[in-house]
Write a structure and sequence with these properties.
beta-glucosidase activity; eight-stranded parallel beta barrel; TIM Barrel; 14 strands; alpha/beta; 6-phospho-beta-glucosidase
Length: about 475
């Protein structure tokens, strides 16, 4: 494996999300969110997709987010483990409903402010830079049930008020911000992505793209607010990344792949360039979509992000003949199964070169610094008789992807940093399982919520410690 060189000051760390790690779903005055309504089991996907209305909790279902891994009470222990690995950045999110339990209050919940202030101060104690997502797949349920969530333009002001509270309360503690996590997932998983529930006979595309417009205006507005409050604030957008490859060199397949890429990149085109892309008009026309815009929206959208952040787990594959029957159900972003790739236990293609391809495409398109804020391997980990977790498969995956990221940097791409997904085991967003583990730290909890919640360092913990200490020069392991 050739040595790659990472720039001085490159940020190394890991990522969690509030709704997948904190638990304590009603503690400290927190209100219910969309994720709190997602059960484990057969109903999870219909609820995520907005096809099954779930506005009340049921007694006969288990909701993994309600307790998660108890980061709410264990954050000092967990941040100490991150510091032991040498993290210089920790990506997390703020639960909107901890600050605004209903979402439409005029002032924030002081207990929620105090909690996150303590988390960020704990990071700073160890020299760890917080990277904070404002909305990571959690909309206060009151905003869903009373306003219809992001289909309602009033959400822009609610989100701006919440974001301003964050920028003011955590000034001096947080410099790096992301507006919406994987904003393009709104199209693929509407309820978990944006709190959308569909009524019979509705044009789903109309609802989704109108909601997307409101989110894009909100993102631009809070970017403007962040820069006004402190010009040092750096605000990024966030894409669920991974290029679509054409199934073949048949021109129709190449066109299908381009269209699929545009479907996902549409959001970032607006957030990074400050206006709707030219191809959007035809897409909307053919989908029967008419976006309702306010006169000031075009000016607001011109407030573009400072950097592009993205997740990368796998590339995708498209053809002109794609349909529900031949597309993989492994991910909400549908893809044909690429026969040239190995797959994870959950069916996700493993493609390190695809990361380099994706990074080159994005920098060619936007000419803004990149930040890889999610990358990792979901796998089943076993504790051996000696109490060890030898997750060499995870080390191998991360090794290859860090190498590919290094090659992209050598290609001339400015990259701010790298945060692996689920640095401590957490509830999987896709399935709600604990057994789909990503972390360097094992959490003793099973899919049904049983376990001590004790933390155990995996073999990858020591490997990543070595990677960070060497600034990415030493990726080997023995």
């Amino acid at each position: 494996m050739s040595e790659v060189t990472f720039p001085e000051g490159f940020l190394w760390g890991g990522a969690l999300a509030a709704n997948q790690s904190e638990g304590s779903y009603l503690a400290g005055g927190k209100g219910l969110t969309t994720v709190d309504m997602l059960p484990l089991g057969a109903h999870r996907m219909p609820v995520k997709l907005g096809l099954e209305k779930r506005f009340a909790l049921r007694d006969d279902e288990f909701y993994p987010s309600h307790e998660a891994i108890d980061f709410y009470h264990r954050y000092k222990e967990d941040i100490a483990l991150m510091a032991e690995m040498g993290f210089t950045v920790f990506r997390t999110s703020i639960a909107w409903s901890r600050l605004y339990p209903n979402g439409d209050e005029l002032t924030p919940n002081a207990e929620g402010i105090a909690f996150y202030r303590s988390v960020f101060e704990e990071c700073r104690k160890y020299g760890i830079e917080p990277l904070v997502t404002l909305c990571h797949f959690d909309v206060p349920m009151h905003l869903v049930t009373y306003y219809g969530s992001w289909r309602n333009r009033k959400m822009i002001d609610f989100f701006a008020r919440y974001a301003r509270s964050c920028f003011e309360a955590f000034e001096g503690l947080v410099k790096y911000w992301l507006t919406f996590n994987e904003i393009n997932i709104l199209l693929h998983s509407p309820f978990s992505g944006a709190g959308l529930v569909f009524e019979p006979g509705e044009n789903h595309d109309q609802v989704k793209y109108q909601a997307a417009h409101h989110e894009l205006v909100a993102s631009a507005l809070v970017t403007k607010i962040a820069h006004e409050i402190n010009p040092a604030n750096q605000v990024g957008c966030m894409l669920a990344g991974g290029n679509f490859y054409p199934w073949s060199c048949k021109p129709e397949d190449v066109w299908a792949a381009l269209q699929k890429d545009r479907e996902n990149l549409f959001f970032i085109d607006v957030q990074a360039r400050g206006a709707y892309p030219s191809y959007a008009a035809r897409v909307f026309r053919e989908k029967g979509v008419e976006i309702v815009m306010a006169p000031e929206d075009a000016d607001t959208l011109r407030h573009t992000v400072d950097f592009i952040s993205f997740s990368y787990y796998a590339s995708r594959c498209a053809s002109a003949e794609m349909n529900e029957q031949n597309s993989s159900a492994a991910n909400v972003v549908k893809s044909l199964t690429n026969p040239h790739l190995q797959r994870s236990a959950w069916g996700w293609g493993i493609d390190p070169l695809g990361l380099r391809i994706t990074m080159n495409m994005m920098y060619d398109r936007y000419q803004k610094p990149l930040f890889l804020v999610e990358n990792g391997l979901g796998a089943r980990d076993e504790i051996n008789a000696a109490g060890e977790i030898n997750d060499d498969y995870r080390i191998h995956y991360l090794q290859q992807h860090i190498q590919a990221m290094g090659e992209a940097i050598a290609d001339g791409i400015p990259v701010i940093g790298y945060t692996t997904w689920g640095c401590i085991d957490l509830v999987a967003a896709s399935t709600g399982e604990m057994s789909k583990r990503y972390g360097f730290v094992y959490v003793d909890r099973d899919d049904q919520g049983h376990g001590t919640l004790n933390r155990v360092r995996k073999r990858s913990f020591w490997w990543y410690q070595q990677v960070i200490a060497s600034n990415g020069r030493n990726l080997s392991f023995e």
